Each structure stands twice: as structure tokens, then as C-alpha cells.
């Protein structure tokens, strides 16, 4: 029997999602760490790095010599791939830049919006047993394109107190010079509150484990954060023209991330659903991360079969997935019907990993159904907007009485008087 459940849909479905809100013990541990970092600064960060990572890097900031050694160990072919990916991402994100704007009226009124980049951003890059240079690209490039002048990057060190060559080279290729060998909740605290070595930032972005996620949630308000991301999700919307081998491979590409990842097929073809389920079984047999992917497919995977194609579209919009692949005879035709998805991949050649690493769009995407109201990480996330208002003498004369009357509707007489003082001055 297939590990991918084939389910006939009679009504709208709800994606079985795995959301880790953290235990009381984890919340208490994170709060304790953050308070300690606020109080003891560098010493607390070093102590927790020693406790959780088994090392005490000294110095904690990556040196130029470490970066040079990383380049010496890094393959030329891999370096070119990194550079090509950077070019693609910069080109895409530069198209997102918003300009300040102003408009005027005949009475001398000037109104506008001033767009200003944040002063400093902190980027958390998962590390230790895993290596994620793509995470550096996705979080640093939109900040740089926005005009953020200072970017501080943190990442957990390995057992030798070092960061991976690919991490250092990728950061160096982007021009990031402020790199710290720290991770966990203590790194989030250092970025949010500052220490003797690390100045505080305005926003913290980047994924991490449950302790990092809880720490980001706890410091929100002191600084801004990107999002609290859940396990990865993929939904494939397919008709009978789609290849089962492609669909199965793409479902497994997300299932191998985490036992709590979700991989779902939505189709109006029961035959396709059954063929994909069989193909998932076949491909699982030779997958190196089989145990992880199998747990994901078993607990959070499904092939939903709808009675009509419109029901399939409606199901996708209800699920609001992080990644949506459309494998149909005419995928562009379906694009207009999709309202809720983090990233949309059109056609059989647009496999999800294309967006993960290389194409240009950001892979930091809304999960857990939040694509209903939120967007991928983008340049605008690293800017803030100020409204600009300038009233002339003529404008205040023309509108002052109405403004004062509006203020008194709310019982705020001082507001009204602040305007009327100016009207009186003009009468004199």
C-alpha cells in the first residue's frame, strides 16, 4: 500500500500542518538566555555558545585570514555557481525597489511618501551540522538592494569553532564583513540588544531551530523580524498531462527537508493520483534521506482528488501553500485563478529547487497558510516609509474649519484649537 494517501475530496480540505509553538520549558529557557545576554553581554553569549555548541570561538568575529583560507579550499566551479546565483537574485530584487514620491495641489499642498532603508539588519544563518549558503543569498541581497548600510551575520560554529567554507565565501562574495561565530537564542539576543562586541540591529531575518524562532518572537518589538517560518510545504496542482515521475520527485524534494514537511498533490484525475503514489514509493527506495522523507509523506502527505477542475483550484486557494507547482497543459492559464501561494512555479521544467537556489525570486516564503495575507521576503521588508505633509496658508484657510470640526467630533478640543490658532493668525 502506498505511503502517499489518495483522498477523494467532497468538500474543501485543510492542509495538515505541523506547527511547533514551543513548550513552556523552551519558552522559559529562551527568556532566561535573552535576559542574561542583556545583562552580561559578550560573556553570556560565550558561555551559551560553549554550553550548546561545545566551543568558545576566540575571536568571535570571523577574521580576514579565515575568509582567505575558505577561498583557498573552495572549488572554482562552485564559486562560479554562487556568483551566477547572486547575479540572478540581484537582478530580480532590483526590480522591487520603491522610490519616494511627492504630489502637489494648486492651493500649495504638498503630500508624499519618503522611503528610507533600515540602518542595520541582522541575518541568522543556520549552521553546525548543516550548511546553508542559499540562506545567506536570500536574506542579504534584498537588504543590500534596499540600501541597508550595515549587515551583521551570525551562524553557529562547528565543533572546531569555525564556519563552513561555503558560508564564508558566499558572505564574502556579497561583501558582508561583519560575521560572528555564534548561534541559537544567544545570537538573537546579541543582535537585538547589542553586546560589547556586537552593535544592535533594527531587523533580524533568517531561519533557525525552535529556540531561534522563539527568541525572534520574544525580541519582536525591540526589533523587527521577518516571519516565524514553519516546516516546508509544497502543493502540486496537476492534470492528466503531467508526468508522475516529475510530481513524485518534487513532492520528495520538500519531504526530505523535515519529518514535519508537507507534500500534497491536488488533481481531478484519480488515475494520476494513484500513479504518483506508486512513483513516490519507487523513488523513496533509493533516497538517501529516506527516513525523513517517508515520515513526512506518511504524516503530512496526500494526493487530493477533486470531482471537478474548479474544485481543484478552490482546494489550492484554501491550502494557501508556501510552494505551488502548476503542472498542466497550459499552466499560465491557471495563474489568474491562484489567489494564495508564496511562490508559484509554472510548467513541468520549473521544479521547486529552481527557486530555492538560482532563479532569482526569494525562497523565504510564508508558511502555515499565511500566504493568505503575507508575501515572500523582499526589498520592501528592509525599508520604512514616512508620510510627508506640507500645508500652505491657502490650504489651511480652506480646510481648517472642517479639520477643527472633525476634531471636536472626537471630543478633542486641543486638536481643534491647534488648527484654529492658525486661522485666527491669518485673520489678523
Automatic annotation (TrEMBL):
Coiled coil: none annotated. It is an enzyme of class 1 (oxidoreductase). GO terms for molecular function: histidinol dehydrogenase activity; NAD binding; zinc ion binding. Binds 1 zinc ion per subunit. Catalyzes the sequential NAD-dependent oxidations of L-histidinol to L-histidinaldehyde and then to L-histidine. Its cofactor is Zn(2+). GO terms for biological process: L-histidine biosynthetic process. Keywords: Amino-acid biosynthesis, Histidine biosynthesis, Metal-binding, NAD, Oxidoreductase, Zinc. The active site is at 322 (proton acceptor), 323 (proton acceptor). This is Histidinol dehydrogenase. SUPFAM superfamilies: ALDH-like. Its EC number is 1.1.1.23. It comes from Texcoconibacillus texcoconensis. Pfam families: Histidinol_dh. The gene is hisD. The keyword DNA damage does not apply. Substrate binds at residues 232, 254, 257, 323, 356, 410, 415. Belongs to the histidinol dehydrogenase family. InterPro entries: Ald_DH/histidinol_DH, Histidinol_DH_CS, Histidinol_DH_monofunct, Hstdl_DH. Pathway: Amino-acid biosynthesis; L-histidine biosynthesis; L-histidine from 5-phospho-alpha-D-ribose 1-diphosphate: step 9/9. NAD(+) binds at residues 124, 186, 209. It catalyses: L-histidinol + 2 NAD(+) + H2O = L-histidine + 2 NADH + 3 H(+). The lineage of its organism: Bacteria, Bacillati, Bacillota, Bacilli, Bacillales.
Amino acid at each position: 500500500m502506498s505511503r502517499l494517501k489518495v483522498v477523494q475530496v467532497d468538500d474543501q480540505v485543510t492542509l495538515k500542518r505541523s506547527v511547533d509553538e514551543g513548550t513552556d520549558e523552551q519558552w522559559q529557557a529562551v527568556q532566561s538566555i535573552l535576559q542574561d545576554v542583556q545583562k552580561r553581554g559578550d560573556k553570556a553569549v560565550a558561555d551559551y555558545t560553549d554550553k550548546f555548541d561545545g566551543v568558545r570561538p576566540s575571536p568571535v568575529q570571523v577574521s580576514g585570514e579565515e575568509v582567505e583560507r575558505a577561498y583557498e579550499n573552495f572549488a572554482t566551479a562552485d564559486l562560479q555557481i554562487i556568483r551566477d546565483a547572486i547575479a540572478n537574485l540581484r537582478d530580480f530584487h532590483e526590480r522591487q525597489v520603491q522610490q519616494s514620491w511627492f504630489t502637489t495641489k494648486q492651493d500649495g499642498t504638498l503630500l508624499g511618501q519618503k522611503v528610507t532603508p533600515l540602518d542595520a539588519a541582522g541575518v541568522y544563518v543556520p549552521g553546525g551540522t548543516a550548511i546553508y549558503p542559499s540562506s545567506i543569498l536570500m536574506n542579504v541581497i534584498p537588504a543590500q538592494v534596499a540600501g541597508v548600510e550595515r549587515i551583521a551575520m551570525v551562524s553557529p560554529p562547528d565543533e572546531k569553532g569555525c564556519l563552513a567554507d561555503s558560508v564564508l565565501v558566499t558572505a564574502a562574495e556579497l561583501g558582508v564583513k561583519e560575521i560572528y561565530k555564534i548561534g541559537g537564542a544567544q545570537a538573537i539576543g546579541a543582535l537585538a540588544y547589542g553586546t560589547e562586541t556586537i552593535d544592535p540591529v533594527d531587523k533580524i531575518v533568517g531561519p533557525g531551530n525552535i529556540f531561534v524562532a522563539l527568541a525572534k518572537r520574544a525580541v519582536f518589538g525591540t526589533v523587527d523580524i521577518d516571519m516565524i517560518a514553519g516546516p516546508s510545504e509544497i502543493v502540486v496542482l496537476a492534470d492528466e498531462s503531467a508526468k508522475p515521475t516529475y510530481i513524485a520527485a518534487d513532492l520528495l524534494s520538500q519531504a526530505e527537508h523535515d519529518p514535519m514537511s508537507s507534500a500534497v498533490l491536488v488533481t481531478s484525475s484519480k488515475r494520476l493520483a494513484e500513479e504518483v503514489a506508486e512513483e513516490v514509493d519507487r523513488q523513496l527506495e533509493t533516497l538517501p534521506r529516506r527516513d525523513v522523507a517517508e515520515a513526512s509523506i506518511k504524516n503530512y502527505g496526500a494526493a487530493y482528488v477533486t470531482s471537478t477542475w474548479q474544485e481543484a483550484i478552490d482546494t489550492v486557494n484554501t491550502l494557501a501553500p508556501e510552494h505551488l507547482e502548476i503542472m498542466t497543459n497550459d499552466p499560465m492559464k491557471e495563474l489568474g485563478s491562484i489567489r494564495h501561494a508564496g511562490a508559484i512555479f509554472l510548467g513541468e521544467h520549473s521544479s521547486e529547487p529552481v527557486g530555492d537556489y538560482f532563479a532569482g525570486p526569494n525562497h523565504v516564503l510564508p508558511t502555515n497558510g499565511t500566504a493568505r495575507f503575507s508575501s515572500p521576503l523582499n526589498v520592501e521588508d528592509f525599508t520604512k516609509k514616512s508620510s510627508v505633509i506640507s500645508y500652505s496658508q491657502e490650504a489651511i484657510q480652506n480646510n481648517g474649519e472642517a479639520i477643527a470640526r472633525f476634531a471636536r467630533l472626537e471630543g478633542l478640543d486641543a486638536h481643534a484649537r491647534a488648527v484654529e490658532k492658525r486661522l485666527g493668525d491669518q485673520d489678523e
